[in-house]
Write a structure and sequence with these properties.
With about 280 residues, this protein is of the alpha/beta class. The protein has 11 helices and 9 strands. The chain is about 40% helix and about 20% strand. The strands form 2 sheets. Strands 5-4-3-6-7-9-8 form a 7-stranded mixed sheet, with helices on both faces. Strands 1-2 form a two-stranded antiparallel ribbon. Helix 1 (about 5-10) crosses helix 2 and helix 6 (about 90-105) runs parallel beside helix 7 (about 125-130). The mean pLDDT is about 95. It binds glutamine.
Length: about 280
């Protein structure tokens, strides 16, 4: 079987052309441009068999990122495994907002203190540290397996982040931050969308119930862990902005606002702690 035949077979079983190319390039250790230049090359039998197996997994709904082990987020190559949510471009909205605050309202902090709650692969913490190296960045996750992935990413990227195991603010007793960021689980238990995400960790996707319990828990503790003028920024579902804004206002936050993601959905809501 040639490169071109293998790609055609993958598309015939329903894979996108791009996914078919990325999986074969991953197995061969070659970029997509190489595949195009070598489309008549015959694949070794074991490569063809391994490709067939990967294509079957992709056709069964496993995220491409788990099959190739890497996903780019905010320009950083992050290693991922089924222990962590695959980083989404939507979450870059949260990173951009944090970077704007660090360059604006929080610019007077020489070493701003920042924490990413439920860090998963480390995406948010690492992206902010990469773009704003002066920040002292902490990251928390309940899952030891996720923390191992995040620590691996921090080490490979040479980004210093202080990792803690535990539930939300629990490992941060007595600490106050300038910026608290989180992409917590927020999908409602009954949301039919969850079925399509069955390969990702349920812990990262849904807190059960109406999907807002993790956000409620974070909002309830946040002001005790923010310096006066510090900000809490939360990612949430497309239909949760008003509920999250109401929770922030009820907890006494000022300047409550919402940002839209690249698809135009209200995706992040945040506010400033009056202290
Ligand atoms: N954005 C993800 C999705 O809907 C969910 C992430 C999350 O629950 N934090 O696919």
């Amino acid at each position: 079987m040639t490169v071109a035949q293998a790609l055609a077979a993958a598309q015939a079983r329903g894979l996108d052309r791009l996914d078919a190319q990325l999986l074969l390039g991953h197995l061969l250790g070659q970029p997509r441009a190489w595949l195009i230049a070598h489309d008549g090359d015959v694949l070794p039998a074991e490569t063809a068999a391994a490709y067939d197996a990967l294509c079957a997994r992709r056709a069964g709904g496993e995220p491409l990122a788990y099959l190739v082990g890497v996903r780019e987020f905010h320009g950083l190559p992050l290693q991922v495994s089924p222990a962590v949510l695959v980083p989404r471009p939507d979450t870059e909205t949260l990173v951009e907002w944090a970077l704007e605050l660090l360059a604006g309202e929080l610019a007077d902090c020489t070493e701003p203190q920042l924490v990413d709650l439920g860090t998963g692969s480390g995406a948010i913490a690492l992206a902010v540290k990469h773009r704003h190296p002066a920040a002292a960045v902490s990251a928390v996750d309940l899952s030891e397996a996720a923390l191992a992935v995040a620590q691996g990413n921090a080490g490979r990227l040479g980004l210093a982040v202080d990792f803690h195991a535990g539930t939300w603010f629990a490992p941060l007793a007595g600490r106050r931050f300038d910026l608290v960021l989180s992409n917590p689980p927020y999908i409602a238990e009954a949301d039919p969308h969850l079925a399509a995400l069955q390969h990702e960790p349920a812990l990262a996707l849904t807190p059960g119930g109406d999907g807002l319990d993790a956000i409620r828990a974070i909002v309830a503790e946040a002001r005790a862990h923010l310096r006066p003028g510090g900000w809490l920024l939360l990612e949430h579902g497309w239909d949760q902005a008003e509920a999250v804004a109401a929770l922030l206002r009820a907890a006494g936050f000022d300047a409550v606002g919402t940002r839209r993601d690249l698809a135009g959905q209200p995706r992040c809501t945040g506010g400033r702690s009056p202290g």
